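Example complex used in Figure S2.
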Amino acid sequence: MRRRPFPWHVVVFLAPAVVIYTLFMIYPLLDSLALSLQNKPANGPQTFVGLQNYHALFTTEQWSKPFWNAFWNNVKFFLIHMLVQNPVGLLLAALLVTRIRGAWIYRTIIFTPTILSVVIIGFAWKLILNPAWGISQGILDAVGLGNLNQPWLGLESTALPTLSLISVWQNIGIPMMLFLAALIRIPDELMEAARVDGAGAWTVFWRIQFPLVLPTVGIVAVLTFVGNFNAFDLIYATQGALAGPNFASDILGTFFFRTFFGYQLQPGDPYMGATVAGVMLLIILSGVLVYLFAWQRRLQNIQF
Amino acid sequence: MKKHLGIWLLGLVALSPVLAQNKVKLTIESWRNDDLKIWQETILPAFMKKYPNIEVVFAPSAPTEYNAVLDTKLKAGTAGDLITCRPFDKSLELFNAKHLESLNNLPGMNNFSEVAKAAWSTDDGKTTFCVPMASVIHGFLYNKAIFRELGLTEPKTEAEFLATLQKVQASGKYSPLVMGTKDQWEAATMGYQNIGPTLWKGETGRKGLINGTQQYNKGGFLQAFEALAKWRPYLPRGYQALAYPDSQNLFAQGRGAIYPAGSWDIGTFRQMNPKLELGAFKPYTFPNLGASQCVINDHPDIAIGLNAASKNKDAARTFLSWVASDEFAQLYANALPGFFPLANVSYTVSDPVAQTFLNWRKECQASFRTAYQILSRNANPNNENDLWNASAQVLNGTMTPKQAADMVQKNLASWYGPQKGK
Amino acid sequence: MIGVIGIHIALIAYSILALFPVLLVILNAFKDKLAIFGAPYALPNAQTFTLEGFRTLAATANFPAYFLNSFLVTAGSLLLIILVSSMAAFALAEYTFRPNTLIALYLSIGIMVPIRLGTIGILQLAVSLGLVNTLWILILVYTAQGIPLAVFVLTAFMRQLPKDLKDAARIDGASEYRIYWLTLPLVRPAIGSVLAISMIPIWNDLWFPLILAPGEATKTIVLGASVFLGQFVNDYNAVLAALTLAIVPAVVLYLIFSQQLIRGITSGAVK
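Predicted assembly (997 residues):
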C-alpha cells in the first residue's frame, strides 16, 4: 500500500490567498491592536501600558466626551438608514417586481448613485445645499416652501440627519436589489392563490411578500451596520475632518482619522488612534455576532 | 557614409537634451496649491535662470491634507528635498523627529531678525531649521464700489464699524459682512484673531497666556469674543453652511460689502475678479474699552526647510540661500501680493491694497495668532481647534461669548502647566 | 390600469431624485460662471457654453494619469483577487484535509471585519516594505480586502460542480493544477459576480489612496478629484469639470457591466 504523498498542490492553491490575506489584513489589524496597548511619554521610549489607553478613552473627559458623541452620532446615522432605507428600498423593489414595462431602465437609473464615489456624491450635494448657489432655495421656492430653507449642513440639529439622508440616497441601490432578488424568488403560484382567494395588492404584500423578505432585512441590516460604523468618506468630503458644526456630524470614522493623523495644529496620536480603532472593531464585531446568533436563529422558524 | 552622417547628426541633436541632462532636480513640498502657477511661471524661472543646472519642481498638496500627506511621505522617505514649513510647533515636531536639518550656517540666514526666525527655531532660539519666507497680515477688505454707492467711509472704531454694517444691512441689496462658519477656521483666524490683538494688547496678551498671567476668559480675550458676537446679525443668509470658497465667491461677485480678510486673500480676489474695486482698512479700535492703540496680526506663515533625507543637499542649500536673499523677497512680495517677506530688506509691493496692508506695520504694533507658539502642543484638547470651534459657535449663536471663553480656558488649563488652576 | 400608471409615476419620481444631482453637476460643468450662479437649471446654450473648467483641469491636474492609475489598481486587484481566490476556493471545495473548515472560516472572517481599522498597521507595514506611494501597496491591500468574499462565493459554487469531469481527467493523468484550470470556465458566472461586486469599492475608494499613496505619481481618480476640489474650491467651473470627469467614466463602466453587477449582487449575497 502506497502512502499518499504530501498534497503539496493543496498548499500551493491555498498559500497565495492565505498569505496576502494574513499579511495585509489580519496582521495589520493585530498590529494596530498591539499599538493600542502601548504609549510613548513625551521624551521616553515606547512602552507597553496594557489597557491604560482604553481606560483613558472611557474615563477621562477629554477623550470620553468626543468618543461618546461620535458613537451616538454613529448610532443615529445607522437608525436613520434603517428607518428610511429599508421601507423605501422595499417599496421600490415591490414596484419593480410587478414586471411593468421598462423595469430594467428604472432599475439601472435608480442604482446609478451607488456606483459613484462618495467624494463625488458629497461634493455634488454640498453644492446643491449651498446657500450661495441657491439650488435648494430654488427648489423649495418652486414648491412654495421657500422660507423652510435652512443651511442644512451648517446647523447642529440638521447636519447629521441631512448627511444620513444623502448616504441613504446613495446606497439604496443595494438593499433595493437584495429585496428584489428575494421578492422574485417567491413563487407566482403563492401570490396567484392569494389573489384567487380575493386578497388585494396590499394584503398580498403584507401577508406574503413581507414575511418572506424578512431574512433579507437581516442581511441588509448587518451590511448597513458594518458600512455605517466604518463610514468616513461622506463626512470627510462634505464637512471636512473636523466633522462640524461643533462635531455634530462626527462619527467614529472621522474621530479615528482625526485622532490618529491630527488636524491642522493638532498633533496626531497614534496610540489613542489605535485605541479608537480597537474599540470600533469591538463594536462592529459585536453587531455582527448579534446578527449571526440572534437573527439567524429566528430565521430557522420561517419556513419557505 | 555621408548619407548616414546626416542621420547620426540628427540623432545627436535629438538626443542632446537627454545627454545634457546632468541637472539636479529638486522637489518642493507645499500646501500653497493656490500659488502653483506663480511658482511655475515667475519664481522658479528666476532661480533657474541664475542656476541653470538645478531644476526645481513645485509639487503642492491640498492645504487641509498637507500635514497628513507630508507625514506619510517623510515616514516613507519619499518626500521632496525642500519642505514648506508651517510656523511653530508643526515644524518643530519635524525638526525634533530629525526630518529637517539645522540651517544655522546657511549663507543668508543673517538677513532675518530674531523675531522673524522665532517661528522656525527651537524653543531656546539657538537653532533655526527653516528659512522664513513670508508673513500674512490680517485686516478687512471692502468693495469700494458698494461703499461709494452707499456713501460709506472706512471705519476706525468699533462704533463706526457697526454703524457701517447697519447702513449696508438697511440698503437690503448687499450682505454687510461676507463670512461663513462651516469651515470654522475663518471665524477664529479672520474674526477672533483679527480684532482681538487690539483688545488683548498684542504681545502682552499672547505672552501672558504662555506664562500664565492672562486667561482666555478674562480681560481682552473675553472682550474679543464679545466683539465677535456683534458680527452675527450682519452675516449672509445661511452663513452656517457657507464654506471659505463660498465667501470668496460671494465677495468676488460683488454681493457683499466687507470681507474679513487675511492678506493672502488679496491675490485670490485679483485672480477671481480683476475688475473688483478692492479697498482695505485695518482692524478697528475700541476706545470705550481703553484699546485705542491698533495692533495688527502679523503672522509668520510660511518658511522653507531642508529635508534631512534629501539626496541633493548641496543644490537644495543653494536654493535656500536664494530664498534668503533680497532678490527673492522683492520677487515673492510682488508675485504673491499679500505675502510679506520677512527679510531685512525694504521692498515695495506694486499692488496698492497689499501696500496698504504693509503700511500698517508702521502704524500699528504687531503680534501673531495666540495658539501657535507652545499652546497647541497637546493633541486633545487642542487650543487651536478649540478656538475654531468656540469662534464658530459664537458666530452661530450656539454659545455665548462667556461660555466660549470659559470652554477654551478650561481646556487649556487642563493640560498646560502655567495655566493649571486658573 | 390605474395601478400601472401609479407605479410608473412613483418610479419616475424616484428616478428623477436619483439622477438630478448628477445631471445638475454635468450640465453646469459646461456653463460659464455667471450662468452657473444665475441660471443653474438652464441647459448650456450658445452664449453660456464654455470649456474653461476643463481647460484649467488639463493645465493643472493630470486626469488621464489619475485615470490610468485607477485603472491599473482596479484591474490589477481584480486579477489578483480572482487568481488567488479561485485557487484557494478550488482547494477548499475539492479536497478534504483536516484544516479545511478552519481555513475556510479564517478566510471568511474578513467579510465582516473592516480592513480600514488596520490602517495603522498597514501603513507601518508599507513603510517597512518600502511600498508607500506605489500602486503595488494599493493592489495588495485591495486584494486582501476582496479575498474573503471571493473565496466564500467561489467555494460555494465549486462545491456544486459534478465530480465526473474532474475524476475523468485524473484518470487520464492530468495534474491537479490542470484540473483547477479546467474548472475555471465552469464557474464563470460566479467569477463574473465577484468581479462585479469587488470592482466598485476599489474604484471608488478614497481612504487608502489618501493614506498610502498620496503622491502625485500614484493618485487615483477619486483622490485626484478630491485634491483638485480642495485646490480649486472657489473655481466652480473647474470643480464641476473635475466632478464630471470623475463621474462619466464610472457611469460608462457601470452601463457596460450593469447586468453582471446586478446579477452579482443578487446571487452572491443572498446566500
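Residues 144 and 217 of chain C are 23 Å apart (CA to CA). The radius of gyration of chain C is 23 Å.
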